[in-house]
Amino acid sequence: MNMSLHSDTAPKQTAAPAETASGGSAGEGLSERQQEVLDAVLKLMVAEGDGFSVAAVARAASCSKETLYKWFGDRDGLLTATVRWQASKVRTPKLPQDQLTRESLKAALTGFATSWLTVITSDLSIALNRAAVSHAGSGKSRLGEIVLTNGPIAMKQRLEPLFLAGRAAGLLSFEDAGEAFRAFFGLAVADTQIRALLGEDNRPDATEIDTISARAAQQFLGLYGQG
C-alpha cells in the first residue's frame, strides 16, 4: 500500500545498491515515500545547490530528520541515494528473448541513448553535476565521487551486457568493452552535457534527442558492427 506524503511510518530500508551489470535499477529498492524524499532533495539542489541541510530536506519532504537518518544514514548517504535515484531513471536496455539481430541491437542502443540524454539534460541532473564539479578536489564533499560512480561508471555497467551479447552474436567486434563504451558515449553525449552545464539554454528537445540517439547508434554500428 502506498504511503501518504506526510507519513514517516514506512518500513526501514537502506539506500539502494549501486547499479549492477545485470541492469538492476536503483529505484527498485526504494519505497514510494523514499522516492518522494529524494525528489525533494533534487528540487532543493536545483534551487540552492548542494549546500542544503538535512533539516531543510526534512521540511521540504514533510518528514522527520530521524526518518532521514534511519533510511539513508548521514548526509553523504542521502546524497548517494539521490544520485542513484536520478541515475535509475535511465532505462536499461533489455536483451531480446530471441536471437539478437542488427536491428534489435540498433533499437536497444537508440533507446538507451534517448533515455540517457533525456535524463542528463534535465534541470535535476544539471544541478547535480554542477554541484559535483564545484566541489571537485576540494575535499568538502564526496558528491563528485558519488556522481562519477553512479553516472558514467554505472552507465558502462549497464551497456556492457548488450555489447557482449552483440559480440557473441557476431554483430559487434571489439577487444575492450570499456573502449566501446567510450566511443558510444562520445557519439551519444558528445558535448551536449557540457554545453548544458555551462548554461546554454538551447538544450535538445525530445525530437532532437531522438535524432541524436538514432544517429549515434548508427555511427556506433558503423565503427564496431560486423556483417
UniProtKB/TrEMBL annotation:
Residues annotated to bind DNA: 53-72
Biased composition (Low complexity): 14-23
Every HTH tetR-type domain range: 31-90
Region entry Disordered, spans: 1-30
Family matches, as InterPro entries: Homeodomain-like_sf, HTH_TetR, TetR_C_Proteobacteria
A Pfam family reported for this protein in Swiss-Prot or TrEMBL: TetR_C_7
Bias kind Polar residues: ranges: 1-12
UniProt KW keywords: DNA-binding
Protein name: TetR/AcrR family transcriptional regulator C-terminal domain-containing protein
Source organism (scientific name): Hoeflea algicola
